[in-house]
Amino acid sequence: MQAGSSLRGVAAALKVLVQEKFASLTVPSFSSIRSWLLRVGLYALNRPLDRSRRWLWLADHTIQIGTLKVLVILGCPLHQVPFGQRALQLSDLQLVALVPMEQSTGALVEVELEQATQRTGAPAQIVGDQGSDLKKGINDFVGWYPRTAYVPDVAHYGATLLEKAWGDHEPWREFYSQLQSTSGKLRQTKAAYLLAPRPRSKARFMNVGVQLRFARRVLKLLQRPEPHAKAKEYYGWLLDYQDHLAVWERERQLVHTTIELLRVHGLHAESLSQLDKAWGEISGCDSTLRIAEQLRAYVTRHRPANDGERFVASTEILESSFGKLKRMERDQSSDGVTGLVLAMGAIVGKFSDDEIREALEATPQKKVHNWIRRKLGQSMQWLRRQFFRETKA
């Protein structure tokens, strides 16, 4: 879990350690390791949680191929969030809910949120992205629980602001198109080392900073007394965008600074003053001022009403758990949801040796099989094998 290795990789590494006499043990197969992970994960999904405290929930869907989505709710007692010290880590969280869903609507999400209250009680706050079904489900849930606050994830909110500001802006569209066109020309040449970073296929405004950083560094090569020859040949057109790039980088920096500040310190009474100090003086075009005002509005709208309280504003750690699960799945991550999704319960939280022993004793493999059969049905891999079975001689 700490190294993020594949299951077969763990089995192979243990075999090497035994062969080289660094350890003396019976080497488990990758399937045994998988079984242990899923048993611990199912135990984490079912064990009692402390209902005497008010909880934070982080909610989102993990989606692969096919129609099946999985609603994941990770939680932490709000008083245990390390505000002002660091951002949340996987070890701070507990698995509250893991719900495979063939369909996801606001009404169905609300039902699952209601179901999750049986484990922690109604939470103090829920943080989620701006997905339409998740957002509606949370808003409907909060309508029944007025003491529960819904805070949209600040990174998704910031990306939405940039998309609205730049998406229909002709210079941005031309710049972005030129960058992709240049990459196409470079890809199969000796100058392929000059390729711009690939944009994300989805939510590309969430990591647009890597493209802007690349463009800024290439500009430095172009602005030398003797410009870099290859940079001039392929990226000379960037000189026409110097002023625009300065504005875009400033606006992206406003969003990035806000995200970094809130992910550590959370939303609280002094958030606005902290933001103004971190931003420095803001001047320039109307779009920059507008983005700053919209970020201030986000903080004002979602900070706690009580001066002594703080709210979490980021689901970054939830996205991190999805990434760790996909690293464990390796190639299987492209084949739809499998039973390995139960490992989410082992990815988060802390488990002592005694707790792992208790989890394995309380959760036989049969319980894991039953959960997978009831909740997931037949996997994509199983369906593929049935489809091609007739081709075997």
User: What are the segments in which pLDDT stays under 50 over at least 5 consecutive residues?
Assistant: none
Strand percent estimate: 5-15%
Q: Radius of gyration, rounded?
A: 24 Å
Strand adjacency order, main sheet: 3-2-1-4-5
H and E string: HHEEEHEHEHHHHHHHHHHHH
CATH topology of the largest domain: Nucleotidyltransferase, domain 5
The top-level CATH class of the largest domain is: Alpha Beta
Report the strand count. Answer: 5
Structural class: alpha/beta
Q: Taking all residues together, what is the mean pLDDT? A: 90
CATH architecture of the largest domain: 2-Layer Sandwich
Structure description:
The structure is a single chain. The protein has 393 residues and is of the alpha/beta class. The chain folds into 2 domains: 39-152 and 315-391, 2-Layer Sandwich (Nucleotidyltransferase, domain 5), CATH 3.30.420; 154-313, no CATH class. Helix content is 53%, strand content 9%. It has 16 helices and 5 strands. The protein has helices spanning 7-19, 30-46, 106-120, 132-144, 154-166, 170-186, 209-222, 229-235, 242-265, 271-279, 286-302, 316-329, 344-347, 353-362, 365-375, 380-388; strands at 55-63, 69-77, 94-101, 125-128, 149-152. A 5-stranded mixed sheet has the order 3-2-1-4-5. Strand 1 and strand 2 (69-77) form a beta hairpin. It is globular.
